[in-house]
Specification:
4-stranded antiparallel beta sheet; 18 helices; Aspartate Aminotransferase, domain 1; 3 domains; 8-stranded mixed beta sheet; Aspartate Aminotransferase, domain 2
Amino acid sequence: MWQLNKQQSGPFYSQLITLIEAKIASGELLPGEKLPPERKLAKELDVNRSTVARAFDELKARGILVAVQGSGTHVNEEKWGVAAVQTNWRHYVQKGAFNHEIPYIRKMAEVSTEADVIDLATGELPLELAPSLSMPEMSWQTFLQEENENELLGYMPLRKTIRDELKEEQELVVKTEQILVTSGAQQALFLITQCLLAPFDAIAIEAPSYFYSLSLFQSAGLRIFALPMDEEGVKTEELKQLYHKHRIKMVFVNPTFQNPTGRVMSEARRLEFVKTCSVLHIPIVEDDPFGPLTYKSGQPITPLKKLDEENVLYIGSLSKVLGSTTRIGFLVGPVAVVRRLAAARQEMDFGLSIFPQVLANQVLSRKAYKTHIQNLHVILMERAKTLTDALTTYAPEILFEKPVGGFHLWVELPLETIQKSDFDALLREKLLVMPGYLFGVKENKLRLSFAQINQDTAVAAAKILQAFYEGLRK
């Protein structure tokens, strides 16, 4: 909805500029999205066409909007994450990097508190799947003594355990001095964007990706360019083009059980991608929260880090296997880089508390942890099948990619386009999903998370989705 406050002081074109910036910041206007024609928008706002033209011209001059020949005015596709440069104090509250609330997410949070909600949006391990492990019997004095082993890079026993886990499960050989313990994977991403990149640096992020829903890239003022992917993973030729056009400084990928698609980058594409980045001197950030959650036994999936130890920063997380309250992640990289990030983290928050690190190390060191992971494989595979069977039976026209690991099912509604507001109909039916536009792609895709599903909710969700699709098709 387009509306100006006619009672507010100041020129209308300035108000319109602020309105457009706010819509971009909140996600109401996405990169590449077309704005209404000047004449139509002027009529809707009850202002002169010259007012709209002036606002558009200023935003074009700043690179926020672009004119596309024969197609009108669009939001610049290169403006993912770039916060508008503002020196006017009255805008600061609205322009804060971590204050951009997406309307759909706000509505979904409101619905989630109601009874009988079917939650296929939350991408976290439910409580009943968290490991049933008892707390270690440790005195307060013991905890204080363990603090002596809490170094700049984190608790040494935990770093040794992570090192051993990576070697055993991923066949990835690293040293403890290459491992930085973090308070979750997002802290690792935050440290990378704040310490290794500068405002207006160009980065490439695979599309679709959950990275597009994170405000931390915006807080760093980075220019984000979508890197298309197919069934085998990111397209390396597209990366070459982006690099030569925009001088990409870093690329962010989630190659194993990718969020939201659930895809696994093929071995051949991994080799090709790593080689391309090495030749172009583009560092890779490999986010691997779902690595342990494969449904198939046999040869482990090769991390990108194993293929190029020097050029890849590897991020892992324990929250997907131990539960969302386990705010422990880790980053593996060259010693100099890891120490730089650790020093920066120390300045920001004085290091990481010893308590979650000691507890995480206790859990990972027990034989029961291996059993927990094996049980997770079986349960998640069963729940994935429960959802796909329900869709096949009750929503046969809806397309999906069968998952082989992780939590997510990537679904396509065979329609040309869907308006963002159309997804409100699902909220009214108390079905929570994640629309594709939140991940940087067209609106006819959506992500369904099946970690919390059962037979009844799967069938109910499939019937709601089929009715939703039939309603849009009419």
